[in-house]
Each structure stands twice: as structure tokens, then as C-alpha cells.
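Ticket opened by: R.M.
Priority: normal
Category: complex prediction / small molecule

The reporter submitted a protein together with nicotinamide-adenine-dinucleotide and asked that the result be attached to this ticket for the collaborator who will pick it up next week. Submitted input follows.
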Amino acid sequence: MAGRLDGRIAVITGGARGQGEATARIFAAEGARIVVADMLESEGQAVAASIGENALFVKLDVSDEQQWLALDRTITDRWDASADILVNNAGVVHPAAMLDLARDDFERVLRINLIGAWLGMKILGAGMIAKGKGSIVNIVSSSGLWGMNGLTAYSASKWALRGITKTAAMEFGPKGVRVNAVFPGGINTAMGNVTNEDASELNKYYVGQPIARIGEPEEVARTSLFLASDDASYVCGAEIAVDGGMTMGVYTPFLPGAPGA
Ligand code: NAD
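Result attached by the on-call engineer:
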């Protein structure tokens, strides 16, 4: 049976673990050639090796333009073609109360989560525009849909990434390149499950949302697959929350329809 991404070259930043790793594996299973791009060398190499000969690990700090240009050349050397799909998934979080946040930490988060994603769109997007076809998926966050305490830098980076996703959709869309955004809620990865607890132990933090549990990385990856594939051929500039309904609202216990009422 044909895969939904047969032969496409997909670059997944932050592909060494978590949601990026799940995306790499699911895209590979759909026939894509995979570039696992991450700063974590041994983890990234292990993911690429376990996928097999259709996967390549490239060491990349997304905030470094020269490294993006080198990645672009590496893809051409390996496959004599340029990227068809980019998933801007690499990200970092720096929790701190606003009064305690240091400027360097604020700027580092913006350099990785925002400037890094923009560099990817700029450098790999150019190749897609030249071919007249491509798909870019930006992994944002529920922190880009509503406010969260302790996440000044992260929220700023994700709201801004949401904003430039719209700009890219408008500029790239007429040239055959669709750009869309995914907004994960709490996901069971090193970022979303810092103490690496059993997922069932964490569900108590999610009782206020319609699907009252933490999400799994594959649930986000399957949404990215839809957006990357031709199934989403008329989808450009969309915002898909994969958050169990977290950002839909706050239950009001004294009104009808609340859970347990
Ligand atoms: P993770 O920490 O497991 O994975 C992040 C990956 O990004 C790591 O492999 C890391 O090495 C890589 N990375 C960090 N800085 C990088 C850099 N400068 N260059 C290249 N790679 C870099 O966490 P995750 O949950 O898999 O996160 C994936 C994405 O999902 C991130 O953008 C994150 O902000 C977003 N997100 C996560 C959650 C959650 O609860 N886990 C919720 C909303 C959004």
C-alpha cells in the first residue's frame, strides 16, 4: 500500500526524542525520507539508525543560520533533492516568574523557539518555493493560545511563532507551500513530564479539561502527518489544538454540563 508521504524528504527539528522522534517514526512509516535534526547527537543518531537507511541524522542548532545552510547542503548531497516537508518542532522552556526572569534566558528561548523556526522556514522554504510544492508544520503550544504563569519567554516565543505562521501561510501559500500550526497541550515527554512519572500519575493535573489526561507524543505526530500530507491539500494557515480541549474554556461548576454534574 502506498504511504501518505512516499519519497518525500521531511526535516524534523528536535527529532532526537519526544514529539520529534514520534513524528520521525510515523513519517518514516508513511514512506518519507527523514532528516532527524537535533543538538542531541547520540540520541538523534540512534533514532535515525533505528529507522534505517531512509533516515539521516544532522546535528543542528536551530538558532544558527550557518548550520541550517549546511543541513540544506547535506540533504542535496545525500538525495540530490531538497526538503519537501519541514516540521519546526525543536523547542525549549524556561519557567521563571516574570520578576525573576533573566534577559539572557528570555533571549535564548526566543532564539531557539522563534528565530530558529523562522530560519527553517526561510532556508528550507526557499527550496520548496523553487519546486512549487511543500508543507511546513510549526509546533506551537497551548501557551500560544492563552496565558500561562511562569512562562514569559516561552509564551512570547509561541505567540510570535503563531503570528509568523500566518505570515508564512500568506506569503508561501500562493507558491504552493502550505504552512500550518499545531498547538499541543500537556504531552508526555521530557518537557511535559519533567520528573518522568507514570502518565497515570499526571492525569490529576488535567481534570479541568474535556479529555482529562496528558497527551502522548504520537497524538501530536499524527496531526502533523495530516498537515504534511496531501490529505491537507486545501489547508493553509490552520491552527489545530491537540490539547484534549484544554484551551476551550474553564468549567463553571454551578452551571449545567460540567463533568460529574
Ligand atoms: P523535548 O524536550 O522532549 O524535545 C525537544 C527537542 O528539541 C529535544 O530533542 C531537544 O534536544 C531539541 N532542541 C532543543 N533546543 C534545540 C536547538 N537549539 N536546536 C535543535 N534542537 C533543539 O520536548 P517535546 O515535548 O518533544 O517538545 C517538542 C515541541 O513541542 C517543542 O517545540 C515544545 O515547545 C512543544 N510543546 C511541548 C509540550 C509538552 O507538554 N511536552 C506542550 C506544548 C508544546
